[in-house]
């Protein structure tokens, strides 16, 4: 038997107490009734060979298996040995399949159907449906259950397609979604649309990012499938006319015309407009700056204001003149042009790196969020945290470019081996670390005199140099991968001396025992934020409005930074005197997409760039110590808790 025939037999075995309509089986298997009737012949041959069961067909009633209970168990076990489905289908794949089927099906589906199809009990399906229902609420879609009929998703077509495009939000491994979605279509369909998209790019010198290319491929395939199910999109005449004036509409129409004969469909103006919006909202690789993107801000006043405000505010907060970085400015124009289109047309935006970016660059991410709050008010828009994370990467890249310009370190290599090995080591270091200026390779015996005659900032050596006062590091002559990482971290420490040189955390200067609340028993993050904010207000550190604005800030972007830690905060204008309130929780609570058990409420004014950066380095340092976080969250004595922070090395 093939996979479909095995699946039909599974259903028959699972529901052997009643008749099954052939049409229902066809709907479940996504095939015709004729195919099901042909499959019955193969299934009957299988049953005759391995059991005494009979497939009984009754016109008008359906089909059922006439089988003894012990034979049912025998057949189940045999099928599991042949095709151990539980091994191949994970919980995440099952949830994706259920959500996809509910969104794509026109007719209701019962929970029992789902349980039978996925070979799990109804309790498991109920749990899956609860998760799916919560997720659907984000798109204003409702999961409706009608007794003796089944489950359907109610809502308009635009929102259903948006949900289909965001199935990855349902699971913790988003990369699985792309593989899953492509499996829902025939390989030649995927290949044809892929090739036509590539041709479109080539004809018009477009450079979609890989994510955008995959997104357009998926939207096109889903659009065709929905049209065949007679589920058209609804778009106003005003929007259609607006889109028809763009060059992107012409490109999209040209692209879809190539698909019509292959898929036997005709794309209405609404469908062309729908896909045009996604083309406009797509992200581009930065390769064609001289022509296509040069005058973006001049033709779009909102974009011009947005870029200027971002550059000006981020320059002030970081004390770096970002207006001198043309690469940054051009990159922001290209990214924000597409971002504004995504907002205008209510297109979904995802950022699989969101949590990682928030953890890696919490200080910079928070500044971007702070600036976007101001921009959102000025321009009456709502730029989400996913976009803020992308913008953080643009500014981080700019900072690194500035650092490389300003901080070319002068180094010397001490190698105890021959000239060949010395030259190889120097070449490797110069290739891997372009901001290092290596004066040359010398012997250990010449080092002392050399340093007197040259301004050397760093010595990289293949042998220990215990008496040397200049910063130095020992590496293998072959500069292995572990040596590269060690050198990279060493250079970072030279640029930004870490807290280890200090006797205590900067954080301890901002908190006191009466701002530490251990083993709190709360169910929601907003409750805890309000409690900590009120404690800061009662002691005179912040204005009354601080609590409200901290919750507002939290709604814009959850402040969890990993390892069970969150750092809620509000605009510095509501702070009278810098302070930090701290709380631990008896049980971890949901904080955005993470669980949190340790909370630092930051009410810290701009007390100087270095102090603020140091504070965020300390928080990142704690994040890297899960055992230490666990120790803090288990503590019940406030003074001991603070002593742990004091003793951190």
Could you characterize the architecture of this molecule?
The chain is 57% helix and 11% strand. It is α/β, with parallel strands linked by helices and 649 residues long. The chain folds into six domains: 3-86, Winged helix-like DNA-binding domain superfamily/Winged helix DNA-binding domain (Arc Repressor Mutant, subunit A, Orthogonal Bundle), CATH 1.10.10.10; 89-180, Arc Repressor Mutant, subunit A, CATH 1.10.10; 185-280, PTS-regulatory domain, PRD, CATH 1.10.1790; 296-405, PRD domain (PTS-regulatory domain, PRD, Orthogonal Bundle), CATH 1.10.1790; 407-495, Rossmann fold, CATH 3.40.50; 506-646, Mannitol-specific EII, Chain A (3-Layer(aba) Sandwich). The chain has a five-stranded mixed beta sheet with strand order 9-12-13-11-10. Helix 1 crosses helix 3 (33-50), helix 13 (237-244) crosses helix 15 and helix 20 crosses helix 21 (385-406). The longest helix is centred in the middle third of the chain and has 22 residues, at 385-406. It is globular and about 100 Å long.
